């Protein structure tokens, strides 16, 4: 089984950032801090992002037209920038899923898992 | 005594100096810090320790600024959608006044109904010119430097808003014109040049809406119909005048460029340097 102290390499963390963000936003709109918490929760704390590094990725995805942001007042009365998945982002996510599943399937066959 | 607000203010000052003129970015990162501090305090940390942890987790602002510098800028548009309504309003006012003074002043009394009709129709036509200008710009940009999905989507979004606004204005103008004609001429409708022009403008708007609904985003159809709209508007407003002939020739030249493959003109220019 996996070593509980296992951490992903920097390159893998960077490569998986976009599909993770898009997949979480597919569940519904969200904001930076909540996205980080969700990834931490889903990976049992094994995928650790340097918090600030999430934001350039979000801004890049927005510049690509995959997600859209809007400032709104949160339930605690403070303004937050929310991100929502766009049509182009859904298409990109579909492609990313296919690619990641292809890599996963190929490695699984090789390793007999 | 630890003062969180003072710490945030100091952090904001440093961040503002590092990130330059990007207050929205500083706001977003501040919101993140506040969320993290709140969560850590709720889990039992002191405010001071929570602040230190949150700032460390966020990362050094210089490192962040270097990452943000790699984010491609959103393309700036020659005709930003937000400024188009102001231009449309200003031009419609000018054009409406011109039409009212030149055509109707001596013949009919200028009342609220007539002024509203003229303004709405002028705004509908000017909106077509704005859509045409956006389409012409798209064609030229595509031929010179290529065309990406982000640009195509931005133009499609502007076209939707302008087309819907233009159609609504034209329909309002059309109805007001009918009411005015009924009060002053004893009929709602007649097949005169101006009324046929109004009908053509509405038909063009419907065609554009269909194109925006069913044609491929960033495809030639949207650009070609967008450019052709200016000819319809010219015919509607000025009839078969020299101005219309000039507009048709200009549109034909732009439509010719629409046939050029994306980026071809730019590459040719680069090769001849």
User: How many helices of chain B does DSSP assign?
Assistant: 11
Query: Which bin fits the share of residues in helices of chain B?
Result: over 70%
- Portion in strands of chain A: 5-15%
Largest sheet of chain B: none
Number of helical regions of chain A = 4
What class do helices, strands and sheet pairing of chain B give? mainly alpha
Distance between the termini of chain B: 66 Å
Low-pLDDT stretches of chain B are 268-273
Low-confidence stretches of chain A at least 5 residues in length (pLDDT < 50)?
1-5
* Strand composition percent of chain B: under 5%
Q: Describe the sheet with the most strands of chain A.
A: 3 strands, antiparallel
Query: How are the strands of the largest sheet of chain A arranged?
Result: 1-3-2
The chain pair forming the largest interface, with residue counts per chain, is: A-B, 20 and 26 residues
**Roughly what is the average pLDDT of chain B, rounded to an integer?**
81
What general form of chain B does the structure show? elongated
Task: Give a written overview of the molecule.
The complex is a heterodimer of chains A (113) and B (273). Chain A has a three-stranded antiparallel beta sheet. Chain A has helices at 10-27, 32-42, 54-63, 87-111, and strands at 30-31, 67-73, 79-85. In chain A, helix 1 crosses helix 4 (87-111). Chain A starts with 9 loop residues before the first helix and ends with a helix. Helices cover 57% and strands 14% of the residues of chain A. Chain A is α+β, with helices and mostly antiparallel strands and 113 residues long. Chain A is built from four helices and three strands, in the order αβααββα. With 273 residues, chain B is mainly alpha-helical. Helices cover 79% and strands 0% of the residues of chain B. Chain B has eleven helices and no strands. The longest helix of chain B is centred in the middle third of the chain and has 37 residues, at 149-185. The relative contact order of chain B is 0.09. The model of chain B is unreliable at 268-273 (pLDDT under 50). The A-B interface holds A 31-34, 50-53, 55-56, 59-60, 63-65, 78-81, 88 and B 24-25, 27-29, 31-32, 34-36, 57-59, 63-64, 67-68, 70-74, 149-150, 153-154.
């Amino acid at each position: 089984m996996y070593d509980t102290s296992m951490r992903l390499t920097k390159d893998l963390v960077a490569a998986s950032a976009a599909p993770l963000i898009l997949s979480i936003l597919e569940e519904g709109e969200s904001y930076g801090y909540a996205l980080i918490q969700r990834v931490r929760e889903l990976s049992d704390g094994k995928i650790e992002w340097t918090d600030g590094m999430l934001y350039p990725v979000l801004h890049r995805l927005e510049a690509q037209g995959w997600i859209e942001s809007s400032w709104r007042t949160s339930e605690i009365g403070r303004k937050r920038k929310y991100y929502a998945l766009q049509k182009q982002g859904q298409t990109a996510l579909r492609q990313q899923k296919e690619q990641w599943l292809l890599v996963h399937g190929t490695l699984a066959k090789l390793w007999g898992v | 005594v630890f003062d969180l607000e003072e710490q945030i203010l100091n952090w904001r000052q440093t961040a503002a100096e590092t990130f330059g003129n990007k207050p929205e970015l500083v706001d977003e990162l501040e919101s993140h810090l506040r969320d993290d501090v709140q969560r850590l305090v709720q889990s039992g940390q002191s405010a001071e320790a929570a602040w230190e942890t949150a700032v460390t987790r966020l990362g050094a602002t210089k490192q962040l600024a270097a990452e943000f510098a790699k984010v491609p800028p959103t393309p700036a548009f020659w005709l930003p959608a937000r400024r188009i309504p102001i231009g449309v309003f200003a031009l419609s006012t000018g054009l409406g006044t011109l039409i009212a003074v030149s055509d109707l002043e001596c013949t009919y009394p200028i009342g609220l109904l007539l002024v509203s009709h003229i303004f709405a129709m002028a705004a509908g036509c000017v909106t077509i010119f704005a859509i045409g200008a956006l389409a012409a710009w798209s064609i030229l940009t595509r031929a010179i430097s290529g065309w990406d999905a982000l640009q195509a989507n931005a133009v499609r979004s502007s076209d939707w808003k302008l087309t819907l606004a233009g159609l609504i204005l034209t329909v309002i103008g059309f109805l007001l014109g009918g009411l005015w004609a009924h009060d002053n001429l004893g009929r709602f409708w007649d097949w005169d040049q101006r009324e046929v022009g109004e009908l053509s403008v509405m038909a063009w708007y419907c065609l554009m809406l269909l194109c925006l609904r069913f044609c491929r985003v960033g495809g030639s159809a949207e650009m070609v119909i967008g450019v052709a709209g200016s000819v319809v508007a010219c015919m509607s407003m000025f009839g078969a005048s020299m101005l219309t002939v000039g507009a048709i020739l200009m549109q034909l030249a732009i439509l010719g460029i629409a046939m050029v493959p994306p980026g071809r003109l730019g590459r040719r220019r680069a090769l001849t340097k």
